[in-house]
Amino acid sequence: MHRAWYSQSAQPSHFPADLSAIFGTCTPAKTSIAISGTQTKLGPILVASLEFKGRLKIELPPENDDFLFLFTCFGTVHLKSASRAASIPVGHAVAASGGATLEFEEPVAVNLIRVERDTMLRRLAQITDQPMSRAIQFEPAPVPVNHENGASLMPELVEGFSALVQSPLLKAGIGRDPRQESVATIIVDSLIIAYPHNLSADFAQDGQQIAPRHVKRAIEYIHTHPMDTVDPKTLADLGGVSVRALQYAFLATTGKTISEYQRHLRLQRAHDLVRDRPDLSLGAIADMCGFSSLAAFGQSFRKGFGISPSSLRKSGD
């Protein structure tokens, strides 16, 4: 669901209902305030881009435990919570929670992401493949968005998000498309990976793979049967999901389709056999690794490794 709206008033009751849905209670200053913006709902995630002219105070409902991420484009936003008070200048982001107060000084432009808490926790459990023993707490202080810290992924997160809120896909109504679940998952994963939080170190381990449980099961099964061509339906049934859901998640996780991943695995196995098993003929290896013919095997091998199987065997590398 994608919406665009504009309002100019000094009466909160005249503000767009969508604004209250995003933030909660809105209180303008004495003068009139102009508000314009767009928002897109992707299931449990809301993406919005807002501009304010005039002073406005927004109180986030204490009972609202959603995660709200605010990125300043221009102007200044003041954040007050039970634990801190801080200004969020241009080039910074902040994670706000229920009970906090946001004050906007004109003119201000912000992008924001709101994620339902249950969605975030469910995704964390999928990534770790186990119930979460610790609650996730995003950095409450303003986070700079720059390249001064080479280890930070915040610049990439903000650049990607800025492109997303302007994307024709959102304006075309991808929120009504079945693919919205995949887009929402990518957004949540990006926040988990890039935005600082108390569990960040757990996801900075070398080789840590962000993958849903059904993708992990599919990968494990493929590796257990490396010489077989396993059809997507069999893999989807293992994870209890639809074939389409598995295909989208598999591609997002590995960068390869299911068939490409299996082909790559068989090709790597064939490479090892050519190098390490001189007692096996190339034809036998091609057959063992599921290639339709020796010619098809040679073509795929050269494309994948830049050398023919016979040349590799002769070189002994």
**CATH top level label of the largest domain:** Mainly Beta
Number of strands: 10
The SSE string, one letter per element, is: EHEEEEEEEEHEHHHHHHHHHH
Largest sheet: 10 strands, antiparallel
Low-confidence stretches: 9-15
What would the average pLDDT be, to the nearest integer?
A: 77
- CATH level-4 homologous superfamily of the largest domain: Jelly Rolls
Straight-line N-to-C gap: 56 Å
Q: Could you tell me the radius of gyration in angstroms?
A: 25 Å
Beta-strand portion reads 15-25%
What CATH architecture label of the largest domain applies? Answer: Sandwich
How many helix segments?
Answer: 12
Coarse structural class: alpha+beta
Q: How would the global form be characterised? A: elongated
Q: Looking at CATH, which topology of the largest domain would you report? A: Jelly Rolls
**Please, how many domains?**
2
Helix content: 40-55%
InterPro entries: AraC_XylS_family_regulators, Homeodomain-like_sf, HTH_AraC, HTH_AraC-typ_CS
GO molecular function, one term: DNA-binding transcription factor activity
Protein name: HTH araC/xylS-type domain-containing protein
Keywords: DNA-binding, Transcription, Transcription regulation
